[in-house]
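Fold these two proteins, one after the other.
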Amino acid sequence: MIASEVRALFAVAARPEVVSLAGGMPNVAALPLETVSAVMADLVLQQGTVALQYGSAQGVGSLRESICDVMALEGITAAPDDVVVTSGSQQALDLVAKIFLDPGDTVVTEAPTYVTAINTFAAYQARIAHVPMDGDGVVPEALADTFARLHAQGRAPKLFYTVPTFQNPAGVTLSAARRHQVLEVCRRAGVLILEDNPYGLLRYDGEPVRALRADAARRHDVVYLGSFSKTFAAGLRVGWALAPAAVRDKLVLAAESAVLSQSPFTQLAVDRYLRTEPWPDQIKVFREMYRERRDAMLGALTAYMPPGVTWTAPAGGFFVWATLPDGLDAKAMLPRATGARVAYVPGAGFFADGSGRANMRLSFCYPPPERIREGVRRLGDVIADEIALRDTGTSRVPRVTPGSPLARNRRVRRR
């Protein structure tokens, strides 16, 4: 078991003077908290003896029905019996790994990929093979070549793990044409797809992207992971797995072993919210809020980043993936950045092979737009200083606006 690159930053990022562009925390302040409170109070009054009791390891039946309605927005046709409710989609990921992976097995993932997925697979002693991405997502030809190479080495992959929509950390989305290619490549290779889709409903413009699971010719080719952490409340820890019957049964057994049962209270609270409140309108509120913050970050990157820095422009989700100029190391630069009161996640944590030293993940979901702009400005100064050190061995004198917090901080240090 290894520590998460993101978790290690939380202590620093939580300091009020630091602008955190690191953690992918949803902004629950946008929830109608009085409504949520009323839903939960009503739940206790009307179903308290059920909500506060042990439950089924597969999950509350009515919530599994509601989850099928949610997945239908992404083109998925599913039966409640094939849904297993979990403690966030992270637990679903862990249970799938527990079922499928033996020490030495190989999992294929995008490069970069979700940092905690790397840690989860590593905990079961699996090896990870990366496949490159570009602006349209994972490259199908490279995926087919990786499968062929692994088969030739006697390392037939157990899973292909993918976050195809508004990917964490890169922010890119697998194109419609490539989705069909990826499904076909995995079908021919006999590799199960593990589709992790926590951000799918947070598309800023247009209808949600169709899930891979929606277009799989054989439904047992894809295990789909979903979550209410980004579209309702992360603290309730309600996610799910949609799986073929044989896998579903094993997931239920594994969940019983891990937690006996999920919390009926949080499940019923989510279900009651979905059934009694206009939750699609709330998702629209989230989308508009995150779009404004995405735009603030992209505008600030254009205004403050020195030449040579590049970044992605996500159409949804929480993240921008930035690439530094040659010779700069995002992890080595992090202490200088936190000293300038801005935090990000170095890119190396999103690779299993030590790659990504020139990359960083920037999250725009939590800070308000003005804080995002200030954080990017501070980061731009740090990167410009690093470029000057690289080119001349001498620190560039950062831009300081008179009367700014940085100027005041410098006066304090001089005294």
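Now the second one:
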Amino acid sequence: MTTVTRHAEQLSTTTLLRFATAGSVDDGKSTLVGRLLHDSKSVLTDQLEAVEHASRNRGQEAPDLALLTDGLRAEREQGITIDVAYRYFATPRRRFILADTPGHVQYTRNMVTGASTAELAVVLVDARNGVVEQTRRHAAVAALLRVPHVVLAVNKMDLVDYAEPVFAAIAEEFTAYAASLGVPEITAIPISALAGDNVVEPSAHMDWYGGPTVLEHLETVPVSHDLTACHARFPVQFVIRPQTAEHPDYRGYAGQIAAGAFRVGEAVTVLPSGRTSTIAGIDALGESVDIAWAPQSVTIRLADDIDVSRGDLIAPADDAPAVTQDVEATVCHVADQPLAVGQRVLLKHTTRTVKAIVKDIPSRLTLDDLSQHPAPGRLVANDIGRVVVRTAEPLALDSYADSRRTGSFLLIDPADGTTLTAGMAGEAFAAGATGGEAATDDAEWDF
């Protein structure tokens, strides 16, 4: 067996973890990512040589590992992260896709992008500064996006003499705040990304800490990719009608299963029309199958000749979502232009895009004390708030708490196609958050 074949087989048996980093400016996110890549032997020789060369040009003796992810010229010039940098690496125990997101408040919207598909978020805090407003903002975004695991990485411990009381105070403050948001699991780790303490290898300077390193936690945190237990949802992306001599009557509905599983013979409902039928066949990779599950891309054939178009949603007849034209949601506003009451927008949900109008903006979240500022009238860039949207056509929308995939949507500027807002239908935070006991069980969260 060749080395390549053995490596391929090894990867096929390991799980995949998607995670994102977040934190304030200069907290060391890119350095942490660079340290993870470097110390886990995931950096190619030419990449490391390029970083060493760039570091020497900047007058640095040691290689600046942050340059492994800060690829834009403006990022390297300013020493900050501006865009989301995605990197892939693997260890014998697990494969990883990481999103290194910006820390500046101006780029909080990029953190929303990076964390929207993450199963874990690493929030960095400078040990000298402690929990700041941007730390709270990132914790709130992670909670809103229902990221099930949050790691608090208290960085630059070398600059506070590796003092345990400093770490303990920061960990206590952050844990209390994140728990009040309903984050189900919080793990605090003291690190020095620059020196490598507790990133991949345990630190010799913090013998008072007995927990895992960052990489050890990433390798062992439970990750569930079982979408078959979720509500089955199939957004139709394309209608296939070849109308050839070989297939004169073929009518199939192609797309990617968003969640759950579908079986031949199962009774289904097509939404928003509400028409019902039975699955006559499922085609996957050119072959007929009896069952298909998320996230497979398949073509479903129905027993009845009914009107089904792109944007329709196929769901089990006994487990179909409610259809509505009034959407109440928590949103993260990501555009430079404000979102105002009365504004006309496009709402994109899975493969369906409809016209809509912003009927109300009931509140804006104040991150300092998690209070709601009533009737702000509009949301500006990086604001988190509640909105009520009326759509021109009905939508089959799940609650975001039930499904991150079919409970999310985008508001788009119809004039130029700019993405205005990322929305999460239903309640803002987990049950019990911001006033009561924090949620401790993530069984109700669909990831």
